[in-house]
Amino acid sequence: MRSPPALLLLALPFAIAEPKFVSPVAGSTISAGTITVTWEDGGNAPSISNLNSYQLLLFTGSNTRPFQLADLKAGSFSGSNSLSVTISSSVGGSFPENAYFLGMIATSGSGTLTVFSDRFSINGMTGIFPPAIETDLASISGIKGPRPVNVEADERQEVPAGQEASFAIPYGQQTGLTKYAPMQKVPVTKITATNTAPLYPSSSVVFASMYLPNPSVLTTLTKSQTFVAASHPNTAPHVSHPTDAMQRFLNRWKD
């Protein structure tokens, strides 16, 4: 059996691009337990020197609906360039092949960057995948992992070209790593409504009787507001300081 390959290499402080997983090699097999992880320069922006911290995760599922299995470790890009993580044998099943891939959520001052590894297999897994995950895994082909997701801090104010129609799709009917929310409403300047009935009918609530799957949506984009507010300085003259009895009254509360 092959020895557990490295999964992640923390890039040098002045690397020029996003992190890219070098191992496990696409289609390879590793063993559950403690492993060492590494990554390298991926050749695409943003610069790794602009990234601050990261969260390393283990995923399964399809490329369009990644399912998080384990939170492996958090760290800083200014730390060591190698680390060990432990993959518990109980977090997933042994079927099918290439059911697993790594994900890393890296943060910077301008947003977050999520990168994924290629798919690989893990020996010694004793858990069972939920039926929905098995269905997704049955649809995968190849060993390529999901594409990177780059979310700028102000991206909710800028709609990417060609995605305008996505905001018209009801939120609950959308699929994929990114969802689209309608424009936020601007409060009115005067309350005129007298009908206090709820805007929407009530919905039933079913309490979970077992562990639910982790959310698969990485980000939500909110449609930009078209409302523009204008402001100007207050030109009214200031009121002079109080004197006499009023001033003495105010002075009582200074201490």
Automatic annotation (TrEMBL):
GO cellular component terms listed in the entry, alphabetical order: extracellular region
Keyword field contains Metal-binding: no
Domain Yeast cell wall synthesis Kre9/Knh1-like N-terminal: 23-122
UniProt cross-references to InterPro entries, sorted A to Z: Kre9/Knh1, Kre9/Knh1-like_N, Kre9/Knh1_C
Signal peptide per UniProt: 1-17
Single biological process term from Gene Ontology: fungal-type cell wall organization
Name of this protein: Uncharacterized protein
Gene source species: Oidiodendron maius (strain Zn)
Organism lineage string: Eukaryota, Fungi, Dikarya, Ascomycota, Pezizomycotina
